[in-house]
Give the backbone structure.
Amino acid sequence: MTRQRKFLILGVLIIIALMLATAAAIWKRKDGKKPPNPVASELVAQQAQQALRFGPMDWVTVKPTLLASYVPLTGSVRAVDSATVKAKVAGELRSLSVREGMAVNKGDVVGQIDTTDYQLRIQERQAQLRQAEAQLLTAQRNADANQQLVARGFISENSSANTVSALDAAKAARDTVRFQLDQALKALGDTRLIAPISGMVAERHALPGEKLSPDNKVLSIVSTEKLEAELAVPAQDLVGIQIGQRLDLHVEGVDTAQAAKVLRINPATSGSSRNVMVYLQLEGPTSKLRIGAFVQGLLPLQSKGQVLAVPLNAVRDQGGRQAVWVVRQGKLEEQLVRTGIRDDRAKAPNGALGMIQILEGLNEGDTVVATALGTSSSGSAAMKSGVPVQLTQP
């Protein structure tokens, strides 16, 4: 065999080997299987046997407790007493002596409407009154003279009747002018804008120089001595609300809670929201409160004692079903439950705020994981039924 023939056979063998290797790689990729890694297999096995560890704040023991259901309330602070100063007569607003935030007392003159027209009207009525009194005096003299003539027989009774009628007409004319003068004097007095209540100026609706018509708003005054909260309540929650119920309100801008008591319930519903306005009397100091401030609170509707309950974060919603993680015989087990009332203010044994009643699925003494799963537990095992669990006692 020649040397050239040997090289040719060797090249063919190399090509065949490469083809076989390529075919094996393609078949391995199609099969999708990789050779097992002994180290990785051992780590996975260790993870499967590693227990989840939960601290004292991550689990609770189910036991009877007291729960209450609440209805959330939102609204605003309003003044019990308020008033609007309006123009009683037409005219130009000459002065307005108060601004927003200033205190006023009942009876204070807070503004003045131009009095020129009303003073001229009074002078006119006074002149008309003097004329009417002069005419009355003349009619009186005529009537007296005719009475003397009748007494002496110079004229008949019928002849003096006209003078008596003229006297009555003169008296009526004088009285009419007097009434008109009184009206003019009252109109002059109405040019003064007077505060009807004591309080604080909330808003100015007009400025000096503006032409006012009767009933035009000029000022809004509110009394800060008595304040109340106006809250909107859904109509379906009114069944549990009664006059005299007490609760704490959180007022915007105030750090401490404000004690309140249900004072009145509006008999009508709002046309747009279908809510009913409930009015609460604010008790205690109200000096820090501002009218119109936003308030919110929780009104207790019903209380239930000695019911099984778990923290809110222990219950998970799974497509309309509710479940919890229970520790039984040292392992995790998923348990479906049916819940009842929810109390956002109840404190759980592990310090969490908010608990929910368990109607079915748990018994007293069961151990329930009450934490955001996957955040508080240590270890790398997955949260699933059958995983070992190690609980740290408080």
